[in-house]
């Protein structure tokens, strides 16, 4: 045990995700439990550079567990990408005696933290907080469960109107380069087809699945399109179908940023709670430049290089299931 | 009491709205209660023309009260706009002995029904089912309460991310030419500005409200834009602000069709239940070519001409409240 | 206009209700708008006696609009019922220069305020904040719409299991002596029977409605029981049915305090916003010892004596509708 | 591959759970995919004995994915526990040519199926559908994720009122002999203490955690009590605290059957979909008298004896996390 670390800074960075507050709370309370001081750095790297840093106690994170967003706010910082920016940030941490960092965010956040660690050797650990579930090294990222449920609730509502009007809907969900939200909200939403960046489905394949060249095809249907689709976004796919087939009444909905917010599910709260505690414990045990992850329901720590070397793949089985059930 | 009517047909038409099923159930059960037969006409005027009509009993509408959409389905019918189409429809009704009609829908539905009534004198009554709340003659239309809550829930989620990132969001809500959903979801969502078709707000007014020419302005903010906005849709307004001011990180979300679906609120279910019963009772009492409405919490019946003659105005007070609270 | 009032105190008292925070925010922002100072008195009359009072600005009520509960907290105060307690309270207000009061709460709150007004003539106004909707002088109290929706959502879930198991459920909802939540959640929830304090239904009537003496009766059913039921609570009614009939598999759920919490609906937020502004404007106009209300969608002010003289009746029509639809 | 099985019967039994419909749909569609006939047996073993069996096609399970409860209904059957009852059931299956069974339910369901398999060697497989998550052989049972989220949403609402009134709440959640729902809704709900059957916490321990003998203790708090608590249910624990300490304003809420209903989460829908397909594939591969499970996100099949031999343990880590975070 490296009990020498006595002051820890925590911050959120990159796109916000439901459960980030639960993670912040867990970091702060684990610090209290292990008798360390905890500092909240506002607006990610930007606040680190500007010295916008506040002390946090067990009570200052009361009643935030259930809230979407992040009380520490988030931002993308161009200045932190410069050596001067990082120097300022390091000086601010030093001034306050902050000896270690916990970052909550995605791959961009982690990349920044890695650079910072290489230059200043400040003990640091990353917690995966992003709705995209696109990080290898963990089965789940914080926010993914909530975002997928939000997408499914929206799809359920859209299905009501699709069924009532015998309409074909294209619903676009978030996920950047990852198809996780799409494949799982698609299976859960009973989609006829799911377009994800990980799969080489052509437009012709989609056209065939929809039975778009026959009048006898099912008229009320739903296609879920991942943001990262390689064959066109929801609007473009809808347009292509409409140009080639006159059998459908087609509508498009792009769910957008509402997928980022909302009160986190139990799953994301518990995941964030476990990861927050694990981050503080990891620092105590000398695990630096790593990301906390959950694999087969157990906490793991993986080095930056390992995480960045691979994509978080979607298993074959999910795709197979999607196919069987859209029969 | 005109107890001679013994067979009533019910259908939904136009855009679907949450609570339509509750209205169908109420019509059917009121028929049972008053010892009349009830027939469900599928897909609005289209099913009437095609003779797609089924008998409904008290049990056939069990467990639909809480569901979004409409079990009778809805469609827009071009053929019903022709005399030939209406002739076919009338013949189908006659064949089955259907003596009166209850239509659930918006102004398009009512206009078709009015034409039909003029030509064939079939006793008919309209129930206002539309999320837009754009019909004069009733304080509330079925689906409006649910749709506004759906919009507010989405805005709540978007606010989480707006606050976390200090972003300015433009959220576009439905309502066609009416600003009802916008003004009320805007007040309930704490919007900085609300753009509705009923108000002559210029882009400059909006720009001023946002304080877009000062760096000191509030950075995390929300503008709700009604679909019927006369100064541009959400995307266009966002673009205009971005072109003139560099102080904001701007995002746009168009809520779209998810506002039409979902399980209806208690308000819409009770409203639909009352209106469904009132429609059957109205027919019994010889009220034809009218729309059921609710005024000051009392059932009223207004003639087609009265309904169509005026717009459902948004009261001055709502706009005033919106202004005071966005301070 | 009585523009002499320049400092207003606001507090919540009695049982909390969703939308109280929206009302607090509206009072504070209306004060800002009309250039008055606003003070928040913590824990109702208790904080008034203890001098637990904080200054509030437009920003201090940011981001509370959507939250359940009350940020000013609530309590019941025995001490305020004594002349000594009220004296202390008055002295604390005087010390801070608070010249007028806005109370958000139910009849107990209003009774306390009335007494205080009689003794000290401090300009004061009450906003009806209670889920019970039991105050005459207003069509709706703040929190009632949300609580009824919460009850309906719970009933929807219970219906799933009732249907799956052919069970008879007794669901008890809140409302103290009022049957408002019960009658409307009962209609919206498709209940077979609704037991409210305002109606003289005997146990035998209930037994008959359920068809409990025949094996052919509907087995999956739901009875909604108001807290104020005069023929026994949910557990007692379930026991009585079970003792006399062996045809049912009976379960009981008492919804309890979850009906008090949760994010308010758009309706409660807008209602609270309007009433909060109206309270400040009422004080300006010299309306003292009154309660703000909403009647036929218009703001009204009624004197304490008027409010207390009568019960908020449930209309005949609701009961009639409930009967027709449970056919 | 045992492609000789060409007719499969599916049924739900025991307490209903959200996601059972998604599992039914997956079994039916997997049958279609693998060119088998599928029969739905109503009301579990009762319908099997009575011959209440219907043929199901891919379309007959359309639009049930998102619904709580079970369209095949569920019941507990005393008659199936007799050899005569099972004989009748077997004869009914034989008559229709049903060669294999898929049961969706908990340990009682599985026990019945095992007995039936031993007597008649009918190929059979069980899918774990219960909110309790109490079956070893699978990390998750269908319905558990939804029920835990339902509990957490209720706790969130109760926390609003607990905070507003500085109250201590005892919330009782379901789970029979298992503490899964309790421990995870407790962590996610920010409970001060969680009482589960798997842990030997004494009443004195609880009393100490609450700081109930000091006036300085936190007054607004939440204790989550599992149905299977060994030191008393929520009402009894509340009573004991109230008898020994006068520092608290205590309330109790027993969530009850609403935890069984509601639209399933994405997690439960996907889990149910995977397990439904896996059940049909398992039968094809000759896996009989087993339960489908999910372990480390992979489908597994475990023999009846293995499943029944052990309790589904709650990991040490969850309890540790609960302790650290309630600091």
From TrEMBL, chains A, B, C, D:
<keyword id="KW-0479">Metal-binding</keyword>
<dbReference type="GO" id="GO:0005945">
    <property type="term" value="C:6-phosphofructokinase complex"/>
</dbReference>
<dbReference type="GO" id="GO:0003872">
    <property type="term" value="F:6-phosphofructokinase activity"/>
</dbReference>
<feature type="binding site">
    <location>
        <begin position="25"/>
        <end position="29"/>
    </location>
    <ligand>
        <name>ADP</name>
    </ligand>
</feature>
<feature type="binding site">
    <location>
        <position position="107"/>
    </location>
    <ligand>
        <name>Mg(2+)</name>
    </ligand>
</feature>
<keyword id="KW-0067">ATP-binding</keyword>
<dbReference type="InterPro" id="IPR015912">
    <property type="entry name" value="Phosphofructokinase_CS"/>
</dbReference>
<keyword id="KW-0324">Glycolysis</keyword>
<feature type="binding site" description="in other chain">
    <location>
        <position position="227"/>
    </location>
    <ligand>
        <name>substrate</name>
    </ligand>
</feature>
<comment type="similarity">
    <text>Belongs to the phosphofructokinase type A (PFKA) family. ATP-dependent PFK group I subfamily. Prokaryotic clade 'B1' sub-subfamily.</text>
</comment>
<dbReference type="InterPro" id="IPR000023">
    <property type="entry name" value="Phosphofructokinase_dom"/>
</dbReference>
<feature type="binding site">
    <location>
        <position position="251"/>
    </location>
    <ligand>
        <name>substrate</name>
    </ligand>
</feature>
<feature type="binding site">
    <location>
        <position position="167"/>
    </location>
    <ligand>
        <name>substrate</name>
    </ligand>
</feature>
<dbReference type="GO" id="GO:0016208">
    <property type="term" value="F:AMP binding"/>
</dbReference>
<dbReference type="InterPro" id="IPR022953">
    <property type="entry name" value="ATP_PFK"/>
</dbReference>
<comment type="function">
    <text>Catalyzes the phosphorylation of D-fructose 6-phosphate to fructose 1,6-bisphosphate by ATP, the first committing step of glycolysis.</text>
</comment>
<keyword id="KW-0021">Allosteric enzyme</keyword>
<dbReference type="InterPro" id="IPR035966">
    <property type="entry name" value="PKF_sf"/>
</dbReference>
<keyword id="KW-0418">Kinase</keyword>
<keyword id="KW-0808">Transferase</keyword>
<feature type="domain" description="Phosphofructokinase">
    <location>
        <begin position="7"/>
        <end position="282"/>
    </location>
</feature>
<feature type="binding site" description="in other chain">
    <location>
        <position position="159"/>
    </location>
    <ligand>
        <name>ADP</name>
    </ligand>
</feature>
<keyword id="KW-0460">Magnesium</keyword>
<feature type="binding site">
    <location>
        <position position="15"/>
    </location>
    <ligand>
        <name>ATP</name>
    </ligand>
</feature>
<comment type="subunit">
    <text>Homotetramer.</text>
</comment>
<feature type="binding site" description="in other chain">
    <location>
        <begin position="174"/>
        <end position="176"/>
    </location>
    <ligand>
        <name>substrate</name>
    </ligand>
</feature>
<feature type="binding site" description="in other chain">
    <location>
        <begin position="257"/>
        <end position="260"/>
    </location>
    <ligand>
        <name>substrate</name>
    </ligand>
</feature>
<keyword id="KW-0547">Nucleotide-binding</keyword>
<feature type="binding site">
    <location>
        <begin position="76"/>
        <end position="77"/>
    </location>
    <ligand>
        <name>ATP</name>
    </ligand>
</feature>
<dbReference type="GO" id="GO:0030388">
    <property type="term" value="P:fructose 1,6-bisphosphate metabolic process"/>
</dbReference>
<dbReference type="GO" id="GO:0006002">
    <property type="term" value="P:fructose 6-phosphate metabolic process"/>
</dbReference>
<feature type="binding site" description="in other chain">
    <location>
        <begin position="130"/>
        <end position="132"/>
    </location>
    <ligand>
        <name>substrate</name>
    </ligand>
</feature>
<dbReference type="Pfam" id="PF00365">
    <property type="entry name" value="PFK"/>
</dbReference>
<dbReference type="InterPro" id="IPR012828">
    <property type="entry name" value="PFKA_ATP_prok"/>
</dbReference>
<comment type="pathway">
    <text>Carbohydrate degradation; glycolysis; D-glyceraldehyde 3-phosphate and glycerone phosphate from D-glucose: step 3/4.</text>
</comment>
<dbReference type="GO" id="GO:0061621">
    <property type="term" value="P:canonical glycolysis"/>
</dbReference>
<dbReference type="GO" id="GO:0070095">
    <property type="term" value="F:fructose-6-phosphate binding"/>
</dbReference>
<keyword id="KW-0963">Cytoplasm</keyword>
<dbReference type="InterPro" id="IPR012003">
    <property type="entry name" value="ATP_PFK_prok-type"/>
</dbReference>
<dbReference type="GO" id="GO:0046872">
    <property type="term" value="F:metal ion binding"/>
</dbReference>
<feature type="active site" description="Proton acceptor">
    <location>
        <position position="132"/>
    </location>
</feature>
<dbReference type="GO" id="GO:0042802">
    <property type="term" value="F:identical protein binding"/>
</dbReference>
